[in-house]
Design a protein that fits this description.
- An 11-stranded mixed β-sheet has the order 3-2-1-4-11-10-5-6-9-7-8, with helices on both faces.
- The protein is α/β, with parallel strands linked by helices.
- The longest helix has 26 residues.
- Strand 10 and strand 11 form a beta hairpin.
- Helix content is 49%, strand content 16%.
C-alpha cells in the first residue's frame, strides 16, 4: 500500500509564526481529506494552538525542536548551523520519505540553501530556479527564475523552460502549456547572445514543449503564455515591480472611493464589484514559490502572508507532490542530453 499524503511544515518560519502557520493549516486541511501534517517546531507553543482548532484533530503530528532559522541568518550560516532546526527538519522529512512535500515561510536564502543541500539537484540541472505564479488577465502564468540565479546562460534558460513547462502542467492543469522567453522585443534579433542562443535551441524539435518565442514585460500580466522564462535578476525585478504596481492600484482605488460623500455612496453601490477586485488583487491567492530542479518538493511561502496565503502554499506543495512533473522534467532533460552528446 502507498503511503497517505503527508505535508512537512516548518512551523517556526515566517513573520507571524507559529499562529499564522497553524491557522493556515486549519484552512488547508478543512478542504483536503486524507492529508496529514508533520509539524516541526516548539511543542510547547504548538500544542495549545492545535488543540484549539478542531480541523487539526488527529491530523497533525508535532516533531519537536526548539531551534529555528532566524530571518537574519545568512545562507552560509544556515548550512553550518541549520541542522536540527524546524526548517532543516521539514525539508529532511521529504528526503527520508517521511513526507511528500515541505512548506516554509522562513528565510528565503536559507531555505534555498538547505533544500539544495538536502534534496540535491536532479540529473541534468545545473542550477535550480525559483518559480512564482503571476496573476494575469487570463488566469495565472508561471514565471521563472525569480531570484535563485542572478545570471543564466542559454543552456540554463532552456532547462528553466523544461522545468517551468512541467510545473505549469501540474499546477494549471493544462495538457500543453505555452512557453516563452522574456526579452526586450519579440523579434528574433532582439536580446543578448544567451537569450538568442536559448531561443534557437528551444525552436528545435528536440524538446517536446510548446515554445512560442519571445515576449515582453507587459505580456506577462496580459497572460500571453503559460510560462515565462528569464534569469533570476530580471525575474525578481519584474516580480517586485508587479507587486508594487498592484499595491499602487489598490491605494488609488481606496483614495478615489473615500475622497467624498458621493464617492463613498458610489463605493457602497459598487461593493460587489469591488469585492471581486479586492479578491483578484489579493496576493494570498497566488502565494508559494517552488525551487524547481530538486529531487523533492520544497515550497517557499511569503514570510508575511496571512492564513489564507499559507493554505495556498500548502495546496501548491501537495498538488506538485501528487503530479508527475519531476518525471516529465527528467525525461526532457535526458532527451536534450542525448541529443547534445550525439551532436558532439
Amino acid at each position: 500500500m502507498s503511503m497517505p499524503p503527508i505535508l512537512s511544515v516548518d512551523a517556526m518560519g515566517g513573520d507571524n509564526a507559529p499562529d499564522v502557520v497553524v491557522d493556515g493549516l486549519s484552512l488547508f486541511l478543512s478542504d483536503r481529506s486524507g492529508v496529514s501534517v508533520l509539524l516541526h517546531g516548539d511543542e510547547a507553543k504548538l500544542k495549545p494552538l492545535i488543540d484549539a482548532r478542531p480541523a487539526l484533530a488527529g491530523r497533525c503530528e508535532i516533531a519537536h525542536t526548539d531551534h529555528y532559522v532566524s530571518s537574519e541568518m545568512k545562507p552560509s550560516q544556515a548550512l553550518r548551523r541549520g541542522k536540527g532546526t524546524s526548517m532543516w527538519n521539514a525539508v529532511e522529512a521529504v528526503k527520508t520519505g517521511a513526507a511528500s512535500a515541505s512548506v516554509s515561510a522562513g528565510n528565503t536564502g536559507a531555505l534555498m540553501a538547505i533544500s539544495m543541500l538536502i534534496l540535491r539537484k536532479m540529473d541534468g540541472v545545473h542550477r535550480p530556479a525559483m518559480t512564482a505564479m503571476w496573476p494575469t488577465m487570463k488566469g495565472r502564468t508561471a514565471v521563472l527564475d525569480v531570484g535563485a540565479n542572478i545570471e543564466a546562460d542559454a543552456s540554463q534558460l532552456m532547462t528553466f523552460a523544461i522545468m517551468g513547462e512541467a510545473y505549469a502542467r501540474a499546477v494549471l492543469n493544462k495538457a500543453r502549456p505555452s512557453v516563452a522567453l522574456l526579452n526586450i522585443g519579440s523579434e528574433d534579433t532582439k536580446g543578448h547572445d544567451e537569450l538568442r542562443g536559448a531561443h534557437e535551441r528551444l525552436l528545435s524539435d528536440v524538446i517536446d514543449i510548446d515554445y512560442v518565442g519571445f515576449v515582453e514585460g507587459d505580456d506577462i500580466s496580459g497572460g500571453a503564455v503559460d510560462v515565462v522564462v528569464t534569469d533570476g535578476f530580471t525575474g525578481n525585478v519584474a516580480l517586485k515591480a508587479g507587486e508594487g504596481v498592484a499595491r499602487l492600484v489598490a491605494s488609488y482605488v481606496r483614495e478615489a472611493l473615500t475622497s467624498g460623500t458621493m464617492s463613498k455612496v458610489g463605493a457602497v453601490l459598487a461593493s460587489s464589484g469591488l469585492k471581486t477586485l479586492r479578491e483578484r488583487l489579493n496576493p494570498s491567492n497566488v502565494n508559494g514559490g517552488v525551487l524547481l530542479g530538486l529531487n523533492g518538493v520544497s515550497v517557499k511561502s511569503h514570510g508575511g502572508t496571512d492564513a489564507k496565503g499559507f493554505a495556498t502554499a500548502c495546496a501548491l506543495a501537495m498538488d506538485l507532490a501528487a503530479s508527475s512533473y519531476m518525471e516529465e522534467i527528467a525525461a526532457n532533460l535526458k532527451r536534450t542530453s542525448t541529443t547534445q552528446v550525439a551532436a558532439d
